[in-house]
Amino acid sequence: MTDHSQPAATPALTLIAADMHEVDRVIAARLTSSVPLVGQISQYIIAAGGKRLRPALLLLICGALGYRGAHRFGLAAVVELIHTATLLHDDVVDASTLRRGRATANETFGNPASVLVGDFLHTRSFQMMVETGSMRVMEILSEATNVIAEGEVQQLMNMHDASLDEEGYLRVIRSKTAKLFEASARLGAVLAGSPPELEDACASYGQALGTAFQIIDDVLDYDGDASEMGKNLGDDLREGKSTLPLIAAMQRGTAAQAAIIREAIEQGSTEQLPAIIAIVRETGALEVTRAAATAEARRAIAALQALPGNDYTAGLLHLASQLLDRRA
């Protein structure tokens, strides 16, 4: 057990900047296809950028546990391709038109092409994971992709359901979002040949971090700036998603306030969006939601006690702490 209460000041992502460049090189090399549209759409969404948190998490865990082998680049690329495939499919399901400040792939190329290229990214990622020659790696990633798909279906079933509670909400995001964070962290431990208890600690860190990330993302839908976030304010409401800020607002608000939110979720309407934003803020729902994210971040930080004390572990701690200050 190591005391990580005084982390190094070095930002987490600076530690792995060179590694991330190599991951980007691997991704670019593996997006080649004899079908031009496949490469065109793949490059379009990869080039949109993003935080690349999942591959970064894998690389940081590898660094913390002393693994410097080349497989870390391939597997970091794999988790980013899986994530990108889910984004392509998500945007089709949600009929989204904007992501990361520009038109979504489905808005630009159409739904059929986006779905099929998402399938290509999934299958390419499985080709790449086979190259590690590790059944354990394939087990982790195949289970993760299956759980993510289940989470997507469960979220679809929850659409326009204003009776969803916090437990049901967390169940979906732990499947849909946090599972790939968990798998990324676990893969780093597996590559390093870690014992089961250390592998589980890394997975717990990843799951908690991913859960906190999604909770904060849902806060920003009602507390952010649409131009800064690169997404439309109120998207979740338009899709009939009952997220934690809305759940908390219905629980804490008056019967009339709860009725306004309930109708909006059930109808998928943003007509009352200004009033709903006001209700979410007035009832303290954002504070409740941020507190839930804080609890998850603390769970992530607690899991790091099992890791050796070094700059990479300090970087992981910084990543969890920084999440609580996220505004976009």
UniProtKB/TrEMBL annotation:
InterPro entries: Isoprenoid_synthase_dom_sf, Polyprenyl_synt, Polyprenyl_synt_CS. Its EC number is 2.5.1.90. One of its GO terms (biological process) is isoprenoid biosynthetic process. This is Octaprenyl diphosphate synthase. It comes from the Bacteria. It is an enzyme of class 2 (transferase). Supplies octaprenyl diphosphate, the precursor for the side chain of the isoprenoid quinones ubiquinone and menaquinone. It catalyses: 5 isopentenyl diphosphate + (2E,6E)-farnesyl diphosphate = all-trans-octaprenyl diphosphate + 5 diphosphate. Its cofactor is Mg(2+). The lineage of its organism: Bacteria, Pseudomonadati, Pseudomonadota, Betaproteobacteria, Burkholderiales. GO terms for molecular function: all-trans-octaprenyl-diphosphate synthase activity; metal ion binding. Keywords: Magnesium, Metal-binding, Transferase. Belongs to the FPP/GGPP synthase family. It comes from Acidovorax soli.
